[in-house]
Design brief:
alpha+beta, 3 domains, disordered N terminus, globular, Beta Polymerase, domain 2
């Protein structure tokens, strides 16, 4: 089954242009690493569009780098293209807030400022609506005595997200004890939700779906809501994250949230899943970057984190890949207490992949590329198995999942709109697999040459 977030983004973003930039980005020189020397020796072209997107992410560094002048001097045409990418990448509102902090808002075109401020206003209302819905759901959970915890969302503030309304959130996520899941389902169904999909230990619920939406509605407080329950097996009760939850008073109620270490680990592995897939939402990279900075001098935290996961190779390498990728773009930001057992433990081919393809995959267009499969192969050699076989990812045998399921009371216009959306989704996925499959075949040959030089 396809990732739930892929279907959600297809529904909300109306499947934008699938062609990614064909040029490779310039490669950072890793500190005295063999992979850095190989990467630096390869001739690669940096497209102007990718440089602009990189300047966006770099603008969040302290102090603000010189690249921010590049954003101030953009033309209206450049801004039109960039605004679309900012929406898809989850950085639009963060960038507005950053320009306000730097006192540079007046340097932007008036139309751009108006657009971003309207999105901020809409998303603030949307966030309030989602928080109100979350509060109502949790009150029902608590009245029923369910064992749960809030995941992501408001629990990321303030360590990763300065203010909740700056984050564009797609759904509400809860960690749920497996024994509580049936009752949680009944509660959600009484509220009008229906079970939409089950993927492993994740149950996805939706309400008020409609195909009559577009990118213009991305930040608006629409009736549509989605809830995901991430089940925690009863067999792991002794090490369950639910045994370590902390209560926080948020928005008028006591919310159980993950412990600081569990919150960080969940976020890190979520970003790793992004990096290890076709499209990486850069807003998640920025949130992880800020989380690390907020804990940079907390030596007790880093010791507890290492003690918790240093025997979990997947987690160690996952954090290492994410940290090394961000470092290659934004410079050193993570303390040695984190990098000593994560980035420094990365196998040379994995570091080489980040050096060669990290920028290209990070700043590419949705729905991304298949270059992540090269990384997956190297991680598998290091003992980290991918969720899908490379062959299955290159040549899927089945049709894409349904973006929006039909209902017995839907109107004819809704049904036709739903069919049109599904046809567009199928055609876009077909084009993606065709174009990126061929691109992967070419790059796979080059990758083998890079590995030969490395060895």
């Amino acid at each position: 089954m396809a990732r739930l977030s892929d279907r959600g983004l297809a529904r909300r973003v109306e499947v934008p242009d699938l062609c990614t930039s064909s040029g490779l980005c310039s490669v950072p020189v890793s500190a005295a690493s063999t992979s850095g020397r190989v990467a630096a020796g390869s001739s690669q072209r940096v497209s102007r569009e990718l440089r602009i997107r990189e300047a966006v992410l770099l603008s969040f560094s302290d102090p603000a780098p010189g690249q921010i002048e590049q954003l101030v001097q953009l033309s209206s045409t450049d801004w039109k293209r960039l605004l679309h990418w900012l929406d898809v990448s989850g950085l639009a509102l963060y960038l507005l807030d950053r320009f306000v902090q730097l006192g540079l808002l007046d340097a932007l075109p008036e139309a751009v400022v108006d657009d971003l401020q309207q999105k901020m206003k809409d998303n603030a209302q949307r966030t309030r609506g989602m928080i109100n819905e979350s509060v109502a759901i949790q009150l029902d959970f608590q009245e029923a005595g369910l064992c749960y915890a809030v995941m992501k969302g408001v629990s990321l503030s303030p360590s990763s997200v300065p203010r909740p309304e700056l984050r564009h959130q797609f759904d509400l996520d809860y960690l749920m004890a497996e024994k509580s899941a049936p009752q949680a389902r009944r509660i959600l169904e009484r509220r009008g939700y229906r079970l939409y999909a089950i993927s492993g230990k994740t149950w996805e619920f939706k309400i008020n779906e409609t195909p009559h939406t577009s990118m213009k509605d991305l930040y608006k407080d629409m009736p549509f809501r989605a809830v995901e329950l991430h089940l925690e097996s009863d067999k792991t009760s002794q090490v369950s994250r639910l045994n370590r939850v902390q209560n926080r008073e948020l928005f008028g109620i006591i919310m159980p949230v993950l412990s600081p270490v569990d919150l960080f680990l969940g976020q890190a592995m979520h970003v790793f899943k992004d990096v290890s897939s076709a499209f990486c939402r850069i807003g998640h990279l920025l949130e992880f970057y800020r989380h690390v900075l907020s804990r940079r001098d907390d030596h007790v935290f880093w010791r507890e984190l290492r003690f918790r996961v240093e025997n979990d190779r997947r987690t160690c390498l996952g954090i290492g890949v994410v940290t090394y990728l961000i470092t290659s773009i934004m410079g050193n930001f993570a303390p040695a207490a984190l990098t000593a057992w994560t980035t420094e433990a990365l196998p040379p081919p994995v570091r080489l992949w980040v050096d060669l393809y990290g920028r290209r995959t990070t700043f590419g267009k949705h729905p991304g590329t298949k270059l992540y499969l090269l990384l997956q192969k190297e991680l598998e050699k290091a003992g980290v198995r991918g969720k899908r076989r490379v062959r299955n990812s290159l040549l899927p045998l089945g049709l894409p999942p349904v973006v929006i399921q039909g209902s017995s009371d839907e109107t004819l216009s809704t049904r036709l709109a739903r069919y049109r959306m599904q046809v567009r989704f199928i055609s876009s996925r077909f084009r993606f697999h065709l174009v990126e499959g061929l691109r992967y075949a070419v790059e796979s040959y080059r990758w083998r040459q890079y590995l030969d030089r490395l060895s």
